[in-house]
Backbone:
C-alpha cells in the first residue's frame, strides 16, 4: 500500500469514525442535559472523554475495515 | 502462486511488549501482497513468514512494521575489503552489497579499505556478503571482533534494558519526590527535612511534566502511530490513562474553580507514578525476558570462533566460519571442536553433553565422527571437516530450537486472540464505567470520606466528572494484557530450551502441547526397543564337538556373508576370541544358508530345510532347536562333513534403556504398544520381556500408519516412537512423532520430536518436559488473567458502594507491572527442572541388570 492509498484510507475512515464518535459524544451531552443538575464543566468534560474513548474504539476498527476493502 | 518462488523469512522485530503488539505486527505483515503464514513470537521477537520476493520486498515489510509503531531490528558489520584501488571499486562493492536482500545500507571507505554494512540478521549472513564482494572481484573478511549473532542479541537486549533503566531513573526518582511533596501534610516530624515548596501544586506539576513528556512519551507516540493504521495496543491504554490523569491535574491546578474537583483532585502523582510503574514493568520484563531464551544463547556460545587448520603442513588459525569441507583441523586438549568432521589421527575423549545430553565423555579415535561445538577433554587429534557453516549439527540444532521457539501452540493462538481483542473491549468498558458513575453511581454512592486503596489520600471534594473519569482511567490501566502475551511464549521458550539441554528437540510449540496430552506410546520394535542388530544368544554343540570349533567353522563359513544373521555369527565368533580362517570354497544358497570348505572340511550352515534337503540328521539336537525357536530365536543348523556339529541361536538384543523406559511410562500412566513386522511369537516374546502392554505383530511398514489411525479413532492421543526413516508415515499420522537415535543430523528427520541419542529414556524426558512446560503455561495464564479478572471489577468501582475504596491509577499500574513480573519469574522456575531419569531416583539401578537376549528381528518387517 503506497502513501496515496494510505491517505485515502485515513480520509475514508475519518468520514466514518468521526461522525460515529461525535454522535456518541452528542448522545452523552444530550443525556446529561436532559438529566439536569450537572455543571457545565462536567458536561463538557464528559462529552470530550466519551468522544475520545469512542474515537479510540471506532478508529482502529473502521480503519482496518476500510483498508481491507481497498486492498480487495 | 508458485510455491517454488516463495521464500521463508525470520524478521527480527523490535519494540514489541505485549500480545496485542504481536497481533499488530502480524496484521501489518499479512496486509502485504503475497505474504502468508505470518507467525510473530513475542518471546523471540521474531516474525516468521513466507513471501514472494518478486511481489514484495524486505523494504516493504520494514515499512509495514515501522508504520504500526515497531521496527525491524538491524545489525551492523564491518568488512575489511582488499583489492580496492579507486572510487569505482567503491561503487562496485557497495552495489554488490546493496544488491543482497537484507542489506539496508552499505558504506565503503576506500582509505580504510572497509565496508560498513547495515543488515537484517537472519535474512543475509556475513558469509553471503563476503561472497557477493568476492564475486565482483575483491576479497572481504569480517573485521576481527565484529559482533556475532550472540553479541548482537545481547547488545539489543542491553540497549533496551539501558533505555528503560534510564527512563525508570528519571520517572522513578522524580516520582518519589512528587510523592513526598503530595503527602507533605502527612509526613509528621519528617516535614522538617522537606521544603514546603515541594508540596505546592504547581511545583509538583512542573516536576510531573518532564516525566509525562520524557519517559512517558513512548506511550503516546507508539499508540498514535498504531491508531493511524487502525491498530490499538497496550500503549494506548497507558497513553489515555497517563494523559487523562495529567490533563485533569493541569486543569485543576490552573483553573481550580473549573469544576473538575479543584485542588483536592490534582492527580499529578498518579500521572507520574503510573508512568514510573509502567516503565518499571517494562524494565523488569526486558531484564528477565532474555533469560528464558538462555538455551539458544548457551548453544550459540558453544560455537568456537577460531579453528586451527593445517594447510600445506602449516598450522594456521582462521575464523571457524571460514573452515571449508575437507580442511584438516587440529584440536588440542581443552579446546572446542570448531565444525563437524571425521577423526583422521590422534585419540581423545570428547565431552558431547552440551549437544546430546550424554554425561560421559565419548572416546574418539581415527574414523570416529566429531561434532562442532563439543569440547575436547584429554588428548589431541586431527580431523577432516565434513560439515561446515549452516550444515553443522550445532547450526541445525540452533535452527530447530529457534524455529520451535518461533512457533505458536494452539493455546497461545487463543491467548493472543483474546489479548488482541481485549484492548478495544477495555475501552468500551471504560466508556460504560464512566457513563454509569456519571449518571448513576456518583449520585447514589459517592462518599467524600472515601479513599484510595493503599493510600491515606481522601477523594474529598472531587466532582462527578473527576470521580467518573478516575474510575474509567483506572479500568484502562489495570486491564493491560501484557502478562497474557508473555504467559505462553516465555514458557515454551524455556521448555524447548530445557529439552534441548537433554538432547530432545521439539520441532514446534504445538508438539509440546500435543505431547502433554498423550495417552498411548507406540514403539517400533527393531532399532527402537531393540538394537536392531542380531547377535548370538545360544550355542548348542553336538557330542564330540567343542564350542570354539563350532564357532570357528560357522564364523569362517559366514565370513564373506552379508546377511545380518551371518554377520551376527561372525561377530559372535570374534567375541569368543576364535580365529577365523579363510574359506577354500564358498557358495550362498539363497533362502537356505551357505556351504563352504574350511580347513578341508565341508561346512553346511543354514535353516532346517537345508539340512533336510542335504539329508543331515539333526534328530539328536531337535529338542534344543525347538526350545530355542519357542523362545522366538532364529536357529541356525551347522553340519561338518555331512554330520551335525551344532546349533547357533541368533536374536536381536534389547536396548539397555528399553525396560526402564517402559516401566517409567507405566508409572506415568501411559498405555504402551509395540508395532512390528515380525511374527507374533517373536514379537510377543519381546513384549513380555520389556513389559509392553499390547503387541501389533506382522504389520507391514505401510500399514503402521493405519494402526495408529485405528487407535486415534478410539479417541486416544498416540505418540509413535520410531527410527524416523522407515516409520515416517506412522510418525506423521501420530499425534506426536518421535524420531529416536537420529544422531546430530537432525535436519533430515521426520517427526515432531527428535531424540538425538539412541536412548529410550529420552521419551520420558520429552514427555516430562512437555508436561512441565504446559503446567507452566497454565500457571502463567492463571496469573496473567487473575490480575485482570480481580482488578477490573475493583477498578470499575464494584466494591465502592460497600467499602468506599477505589484503586488509584498508579496502584493499577503497579499491579500490572507485578503481573508481568510474576509470569516471567514463574517461567524462570522451569530452569531448575530436571527430568526424573536424570535425577537417578532408583529406577535406573533397577534396570541395570544383565542384558537379556531377545529373538532376532526380521529386518524386512521393521
Residues:
Amino acid at each position: 500500500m503506497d502513501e496515496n492509498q494510505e491517505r485515502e484510507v485515513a480520509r475514508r475512515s475519518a468520514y466514518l469514525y468521526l461522525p460515529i464518535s461525535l454522535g456518541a459524544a452528542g448522545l452523552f451531552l444530550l443525556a446529561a442535559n436532559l438529566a439536569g443538575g450537572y455543571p457545565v464543566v462536567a458536561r463538557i468534560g464528559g462529552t470530550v472523554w466519551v468522544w475520545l474513548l469512542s474515537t479510540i474504539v471506532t478508529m482502529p476498527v473502521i480503519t482496518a475495515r476500510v483498508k481491507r476493502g481497498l486492498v480487495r | 502462486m508458485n510455491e517454488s518462488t516463495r521464500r521463508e523469512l525470520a524478521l527480527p522485530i523490535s519494540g514489541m511488549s505485549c500480545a496485542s503488539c504481536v497481533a499488530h505486527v502480524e496484521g501489518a505483515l499479512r496486509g502485504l501482497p503475497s505474504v502468508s503464514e505470518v507467525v510473530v513470537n513475542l518471546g523471540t521477537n521474531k516474525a516468521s513468514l513466507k513471501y514472494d520476493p518478486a511481489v514484495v520486498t524486505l523494504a516493504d515489510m520494514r515499512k509495514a512494521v515501522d508504520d504500526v509503531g515497531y521496527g525491524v531490528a538491524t545489525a551492523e558489520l564491518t568488512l575489511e575489503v582488499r583489492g580496492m584501488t579507486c572510487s569505482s571499486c567503491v561503487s562496485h562493492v557497495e552495489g554488490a552489497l546493496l544488491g543482497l536482500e537484507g542489506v539496508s545500507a552499505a558504506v565503503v571507505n576506500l582509505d580504510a579499505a572497509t565496508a560498513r554494512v547495515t543488515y537484517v540478521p537472519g535474512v543475509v549472513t556475513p558469509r553471503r556478503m563476503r561472497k557477493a564482494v568476492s564475486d565482483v572481484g575483491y576479497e572481504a573478511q569480517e573485521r576481527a571482533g565484529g559482533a556475532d549473532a550472540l553479541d548482537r542479541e545481547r547488545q539489543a537486549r542491553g540497549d533496551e534494558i539501558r533505555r528503560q533503566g534510564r527512563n525508570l531513573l528519571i520517572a522513578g526518582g522524580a516520582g518519589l519526590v512528587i510523592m513526598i511533596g503530595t503527602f507533605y501534610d502527612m509526613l509528621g516530624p519528617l516535614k522538617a527535612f522537606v521544603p514546603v515548596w515541594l508540596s505546592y501544586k504547581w511545583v509538583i506539576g512542573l516536576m510531573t511534566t518532564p516525566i509525562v513528556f520524557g519517559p512517558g512519551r513512548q506511550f503516546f507516540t507508539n499508540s498514535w502511530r498504531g491508531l493511524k493504521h487502525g491498530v490499538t495496543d497496550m500503549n494506548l491504554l497507558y497513553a489515555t490513562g497517563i494523559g487523562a490523569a495529567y490533563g485533569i491535574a493541569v486543569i485543576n491546578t490552573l483553573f481550580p474553580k473549573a469544576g473538575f474537583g479543584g485542588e483536592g483532585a490534582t492527580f499529578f502523582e498518579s500521572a507520574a507514578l503510573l508512568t514510573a510503574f509502567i516503565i518499571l514493568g517494562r524494565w523488569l520484563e526486558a531484564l528477565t525476558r532474555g533469560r528464558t531464551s538462555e538455551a539458544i544463547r548457551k548453544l550459540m556460545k558453544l560455537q568456537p570462533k577460531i579453528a586451527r587448520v593445517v594447510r600445506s603442513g602449516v598450522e594456521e588459525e582462521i575464523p571457524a566460519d571460514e573452515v571449508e569441507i575437507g580442511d584438516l583441523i587440529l584440536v588440542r586438549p581443552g579446546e572446542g571442536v570448531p565444525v563437524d568432521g571425521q577423526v583422521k589421527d590422534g585419540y581423545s575423549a570428547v565431552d558431547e553433553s552440551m549437544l546430546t545430553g550424554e554425561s560421559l565423555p565419548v572416546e574418539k579415535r581415527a574414523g570416529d565422527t566429531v561434532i562442532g561445538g563439543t569440547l575436547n577433554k584429554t588428548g589431541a587429534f586431527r580431523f577432516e571437516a565434513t560439515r561446515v557453516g549452516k550444515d553443522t549439527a550445532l547450526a541445525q540444532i540452533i535452527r530447530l530450537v529457534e524455529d520451535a521457539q518461533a512457533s505458536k501452540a494452539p493455546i497461545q493462538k487463543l491467548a493472543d486472540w483474546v489479548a488482541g481483542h481485549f484492548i478495544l473491549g477495555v475501552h468500551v468498558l471504560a466508556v460504560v464505567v464512566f457513563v454509569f458513575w456519571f449518571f448513576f453511581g456518583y449520585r447514589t454512592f459517592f462518599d467524600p470520606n472515601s479513599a484510595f486503596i493503599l493510600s491515606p489520600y481522601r477523594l474529598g471534594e472531587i466532582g462527578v466528572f473527576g470521580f467518573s473519569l478516575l474510575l474509567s482511567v483506572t479500568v484502562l490501566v489495570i486491564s493491560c494484557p501484557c502478562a497474557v502475551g508473555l504467559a505462553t511464549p516465555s514458557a515454551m521458550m524455556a521448555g524447548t530450551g530445557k529439552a534441548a539441554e537433554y538432547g530432545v528437540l521439539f520441532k514446534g510449540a504445538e508438539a509440546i502441547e500435543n505431547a502433554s496430552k498423550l495417552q498411548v506410546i507406540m514403539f517400533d520394535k527393531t532399532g527402537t526397543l531393540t538394537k536392531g542388530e542380531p547377535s548370538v544368544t545360544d550355542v548348542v554343540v553336538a557330542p564330540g564337538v567343542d564350542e570354539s570349533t563350532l564357532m570357528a567353522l560357522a564364523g569362517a563359513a559366514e565370513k564373506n556373508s552379508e546377511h545380518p544373521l551371518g554377520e551376527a555369527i561372525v561377530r559372535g565368533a570374534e567375541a569368543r576370541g576364535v580365529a577365523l580362517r579363510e574359506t577354500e570354497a564358498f557358495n550362498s544358497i539363497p533362502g537356505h544358508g551357505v556351504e563352504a570348505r574350511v580347513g578341508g572340511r565341508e561346512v553346511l550352515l543354514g535353516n532346517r530345510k537345508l539340512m533336510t534337503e542335504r539329508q543331515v540328521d539333526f534328530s539328536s539336537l531337535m529338542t534344543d532347536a525347538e526350545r530355542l525357536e519357542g523362545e522366538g530365536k532364529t536357529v541356525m543348523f551347522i553340519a561338518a562333513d555331512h554330520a551335525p556339529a551344532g546349533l547357533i541361536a541368533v536374536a536381536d538384543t534389547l536396548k539397555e534403556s528399553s525396560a526402564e523406559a517402559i516401566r517409567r511410562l507405566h508409572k506415568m500412566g501411559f498405555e504402551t504398544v509395540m508395532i512390528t513386522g515380525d511374527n507374533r511369537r517373536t514379537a510377543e516374546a519381546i513384549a513380555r520381556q520389556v513389559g509392553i502392554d499390547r503387541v501389533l505383530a506382522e504389520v507391514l511398514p505401510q500399514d503402521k500408519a493405519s494402526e495408529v489411525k485405528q487407535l486415534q479413532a478410539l479417541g486416544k492421543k498416540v505418540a509413535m516412537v520410531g527410527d524416523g526413516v522407515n516409520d515416517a508415515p506412522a510418525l506423521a499420522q501420530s499425534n506426536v512423532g518421535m524420531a529416536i537415535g537420529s544422531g546430530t543430523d537432525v535436519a533430515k528427520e521426520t517427526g515432531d520430536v527428535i531424540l538425538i541419542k539412541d536412548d529410550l529414556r529420552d521419551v520420558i524426558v520429552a514427555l516430562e518436559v512437555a508436561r512441565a512446560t504446559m503446567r507452566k503455561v497454565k500457571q502463567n495464564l492463571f496469573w496473567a488473567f487473575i490480575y485482570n479478572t480481580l482488578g477490573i471489577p475493583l477498578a470499575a468501582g464494584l466494591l465502592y458502594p460497600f467499602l468506599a475504596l477505589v484503586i488509584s491509577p498508579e496502584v493499577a499500574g503497579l499491579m500490572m507491572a507485578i503481573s508481568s513480573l510474576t509470569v516471567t519469574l514463574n517461567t524462570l522456575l522451569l530452569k531448575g527442572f530436571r527430568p526424573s531419569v536424570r535425577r537417578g531416583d532408583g529406577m535406573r539401578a533397577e534396570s541395570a541388570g544383565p542384558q537379556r537376549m531377545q529373538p532376532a528381528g526380521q529386518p524386512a518387517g521393521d
